[in-house]
């Protein structure tokens, strides 16, 4: 199995936008209206928004290649880049997205291990993430990795208010 990670920078903005749209759409389109999906993705993955995120020194993006093909990506945040106030001893996994064609190859765990290595290198005490309450596969995956539900927050998909569970793993 050939897996390769590549840091993602502003020069990769278009490729990041494309994989973001593709993986988010694959994951959530059957559960949401096309209008709400479009509203969310047009805002979250707008080039100006992605450029802002890529320019933040407290965030890191990585492309994941499997047998030479772009299969997914990872985004982690520390400090004020975290989407919730979780403290300086925390690292947020904001995005682990794998294209459906590459599921069941251990790639999600590979990206998690990269996030874990970053957290350990930065001497963080916990890793946390938000996961949609109806994404049972992802919740089960994170539970297997030792995460526990520690809270919840609202997430807006267009005009539809949804609930994300906050899951945390103590290091």
Explain the overall architecture:
With 171 residues, this protein is an alpha+beta fold. The protein has one domain: Aminopeptidase. The chain has helices at 13-28, 34-44, 47-55, 107-121, 136-144, and strands at 3-7, 59-66, 69-78, 90-98, 126-132, 148-157, 160-170. Strands 1-2-3-4-5-7-6 form a 7-stranded mixed β-sheet, with helices on both faces. Helix 4 (107-121) links the parallel strand 4 (90-98) and strand 5 (126-132). The longest helix is centred in the first third of the chain and has 16 residues, at 13-28. It is globular. The protein starts with a strand and ends with a strand.
In a nutshell, what does this entry contain?
The chain is α+β, with helices and mostly antiparallel strands and 171 residues long. It contains 5 helices and 7 strands.
């Amino acid at each position: 199995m050939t897996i390769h990670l590549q840091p993602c920078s502003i020069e990769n903005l278009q490729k990041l936008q494309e994989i973001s749209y593709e993986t988010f759409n694959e994951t959530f389109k059957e559960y949401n209206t096309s209008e709400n999906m479009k509203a969310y993705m047009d805002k979250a993955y707008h080039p100006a928004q992605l450029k802002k995120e890529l320019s933040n020194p407290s965030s890191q993006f990585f492309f994941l290649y499997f047998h030479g093909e772009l299969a997914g990506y990872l985004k982690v945040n520390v400090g004020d880049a975290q989407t919730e106030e979780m403290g300086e001893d925390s690292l947020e996994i904001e995005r682990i997205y794998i294209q459906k064609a590459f599921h069941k190859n251990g790639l999600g765990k590979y990206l998690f291990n990269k996030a874990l290595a970053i957290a350990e290198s930065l001497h963080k005490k916990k890793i946390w993430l938000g996961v949609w309450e109806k994404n049972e596969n992802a919740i089960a995956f994170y539970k297997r990795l030792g995460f526990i539900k520690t809270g919840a927050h609202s997430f807006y998909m267009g005009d539809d208010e949804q609930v994300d569970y906050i899951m945390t793993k103590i290091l």
